[in-house]
Amino acid sequence: MLDFAIFAVTFLLALVGAVLYLYPASRQAAGIPGITPTEEKDGNLPDIVNSGSLHEFLVNLHERYGPVVSFWFGRRLVVSLGSVDVLKQHINPNKTSDPFETMLKSLLRYQSDSGNVSENLMRKKMYENGVTNSLRSNFALLLKLSEELLDKWLSYPESQHVPLCQHMLGFAMKSVTQMVMGSTFEDEQEVIRFQKNHGTVWSEIGKGFLDGSLDKSATRKKQYEDALMQLESILKKIIKERKGRNFSEHIFIDSLVQGDLNDQQILEDSMIFSLASCIITAKLCTWAVCFLTTYEEVQRKLYEEIDQVFGKGPVTPENIEELRYCRQVLCETVRTARLTPVSARLQDIEGKIDKFIIPRETLVLYALGVVLQDPSTWPSPYKFDPERFDDESVMKTFSLLGFSGTQECPELRFAYMVTTVLLSVLVRRLHLLSVEGQVIETKYELVTSSKEEAWITVSKRY
């Protein structure tokens, strides 16, 4: 199950940190095609760094050796799976606890136990209810924030370049903080402080733990620890305020507070959800708008659907559910952008994929970025084609990968809804246009983003 694929690289690192020296490691790759270690201590880490990202390293590795490949992270054997067929073989017989908590708790230095299977299922259900209830209760707020951004863009002259990444990050931070943590973040200064601390923590999770540079810099490490402490302090205060009280607006933290969790579990879960939802929402909004500016026909069809569903009436939660083509646009955005390119698991018991034996305690990667553009699964994989999701079998495959349906992670479901409301508001009133000559290069980290600011222009529909 790929419920929490979004934290790809870091989960691998967390697993490495947990098992690297706890178990004896062999330099034999169990007959699985792949490469030998470049260095005794670091394995193939230099190759990953030289490739630019783990995703790009895996693309090259799977092109050379096929859908099942091996390499070394330190002294630990890693197996990467790069096709739908082999993923199906591994997902079903290897259902274990979700990697999400294991990964982030390790990186955030949290120590609480993840719980047994029934407790994990209970907490997953609590997450899902928290997302549903917070979106329903705060729909008017989400609509208001979307309309504020619309008004800002409407005020611009048509020639003005709009810094899309900056605006989408600001919008996501305002939306997520208020819907997850409440009215404290109606104060814009609180949002700015949260965004600064969030950026410090997230950047170190994405980079500092990968190359080991965080522990080598006392200044950076103190900045990281101070930022994390400030985020925890905010959450502790909110948790204390919400306990034992009823509020008219239900926020995500309320679902955790009302559940059978202790204070430390509430703190950890709310921290994880806050960190993830902000960045996932920001990047999904950014990529969706980017693709709409590039593919005018897709934007036209989306506008026609929005116009047909809403007419001159208001955007409502009920009507939002009717935007089928919009959901296809978002699914194709996730696929084409390879929004979350890698996930990982620890092999609990010896397993078998095709003819290959995967030894116990092997790190197993799901190379989602490779799979999402495999031409045998996705015809014309580099074409942005939302209508491919008309096919039920395509949606079934997408669900298997954790991007839709019952396996969809709560953070992504949250981001889908926020982005749908925003697009409904923007596309209804504006033509979204690309800047001539701009080339957007991709940066593959925990969540895929553009290397530089993405610029757009807008013009009024009416």
From TrEMBL:
InterPro entries: CYP450_20A1-like, Cyt_P450, Cyt_P450_E_grp-I, Cyt_P450_sf. Residues 214-241 form a coiled coil. GO terms for molecular function: heme binding; iron ion binding; monooxygenase activity; oxidoreductase activity, acting on paired donors, with incorporation or reduction of molecular oxygen. CDD domains: CYP20A1. Keywords: Coiled coil, Heme, Iron, Metal-binding. Pfam families: p450. It comes from the Eukaryota. Heme binds at C409. The keyword Chloroplast does not apply. One of its GO terms (cellular component) is membrane. Its cofactor is heme. PANTHER family: CYTOCHROME P450 20A1. Belongs to the cytochrome P450 family. This is Cytochrome P450 20A1.
